[in-house]
Write a structure and sequence with these properties.
The structure is a single chain. Helices cover 39% and strands 21% of the residues. It is of the alpha+beta class and 379 residues long. It folds into two domains: 1-98 and 134-224, tRNA-splicing ligase RtcB (Alpha-Beta Complex); 111-125 and 226-379, no CATH class. α2 crosses α9 (175-210), α6 runs antiparallel to α8 (137-157) and α8 packs antiparallel against α9. The chain is globular, with a radius of gyration of 20 Å.
Length: 379
């Protein structure tokens, strides 16, 4: 999200903003909303409509949908292919931030690399931004868990030899493949709705603190992009047009200028690409490219990636106050637990700046802006 605010406008308010966000947006393992428990029938509508459901129910506007990948809705969702247990887990988790590396972060644009693309995306130096990273919560996790068992059986059924059980699979056009893709689309739509609702509560928090309307603060969506998703797309393979299933696991879409899936307002520069880093260093906005379409099925990296396991990070943080270390760096953080902060300590991740320069130099997405954190709520 972008704003019309500059760093100086919130410097003395950052703790208040983060504390209020922490109160307004539940976060962490098992977090749920006491004020929003959906019936199964209503939850099925969420799985079908995605962010459209959220907008129809007063969380944001049609303008938001124009700047969301696929308009915030995958049409292939089939709610009947989602288990009762998944429904139960997702019933009260809409509008919440997941655990681990999920977050809502207030940042400021530190550097502009491509002024033309930055202008198209509405970004400028010293601008206050908000980045939201969360997905389909327990519902999506349960769908994955349910279908792993199905895929194990399907692999044997179709005579697929597995070098690793985690590669269990089924042909895309098989009954099992179709069922999984339709359930996964429902999880993706739940995630679209989840982020849309969180964005709404971010706006409400800022409006409350600044005592003015969100339109005066310029709180608008730059882009909502997926990762950890499989999508049916058209690509050129061996100089021929082909319809393929593109799996972006730990990857994100990076479509180029002129592509019809890119929002009209960005079509002359390309799709915004969001690559978050750790809570102590930086995140980046990049632009999709033609080379990505030629070499990586229109994809680039999603984030920095860990260099320490969570258990190793916990050991490395023993006896330290990560909260105070972050505050000394000028970043105010609230988290569901001390363990979460320890697991997410910046040293547990690769330096995202090195990562984004690799993809920039490879030409599969190009640098637009660097954003440094001021404050964050972590799951």
């Amino acid at each position: 999200m972008r704003s019309v605010l500059s760093a100086g406008d919130i410097r003395n308010k950052i703790k208040d903003i983060i504390d209020r966000l922490y109160l307004n947006i539940p976060s962490g393992v098992g977090s749920h909303r006491k004020d929003l428990k959906l019936s199964r029938n209503e939850l099925q509508k969420v799985l079908v409509k995605g962010a459209e459901w959220a907008v129809e129910n007063g969380y944001g506007s049609e303008e938001d949908l124009r700047f969301t990948e696929d308009g915030g809705r995958l049409d292939s969702a089939e709610p009947d292919n989602v288990s009762d247990k998944a429904y139960e887990r997702g019933r009260d988790q809409l509008g919440t931030v997941g655990s681990g590396n999920h977050f809502v972060e207030i940042g400021v644009v530190k550097e502009i690399y491509d002024s033309h693309a930055a202008q198209a995306f509405g970004l400028f130096e010293n601008q206050v931004t908000i980045m939201i990273h969360t997905g389909s919560r327990g519902l999506g996790y349960q769908i994955c868990d349910d279908y792993i068992r199905e895929m194990m059986k399907a692999s044997a059924k179709y005579g697929i030899s597995l070098p690793d059980r985690q590669l269990c699979c089924a042909p895309v056009r098989s009954i099992e493949g179709k069922r999984y893709l339709s359930a996964m689309a429902g999880a993706a739509n739940y995630a679209f709705a989840n982020r849309q609702m969180i964005m709404h509560w971010v706006r409400e928090t800022f409006e409350d603190i600044f005592r003015t309307g969100g339109h005066k603060l310029g709180l608008s969506l730059v882009y909502d992009v997926c990762h950890n998703i499989a999508k049916i797309e058209k690509h050129t393979v061996d100089n021929k047009d082909a319809t393929v299933c593109v799996h972006r696991k730990g990857a994100t879409r990076a479509f180029p200028a002129g592509h019809p899936a890119v929002p009209e307002g960005y079509r002359n520069v390309g799709q915004p690409v969001l690559i978050p880093g750790d809570m102590g260093r930086a995140s980046y906005v990049l632009c999709g490219t033609k080379r990505a379409m030629e070499e990586t099925f229109g994809s680039t990296c999603h984030g920095a990636g860990r260099v320490m396991s969570r258990s190793k990070a916990l050991k490395a943080a023993k006896g330290r106050s990560i909260h105070k270390e972050m505050e000394a760096k000028g970043v105010y953080v609230r988290a569901a637990s001390r363990e979460t902060l320890a697991e997410e300590t910046p040293e547990a991740y690769k330096d995202v700046s090195q990562v984004v320069h690799v993809v920039h130099n490879a030409g599969i997405s190009t640098l637009v802006a660097k954003i440094v954190p001021l404050g964050s709520i972590k799951g």
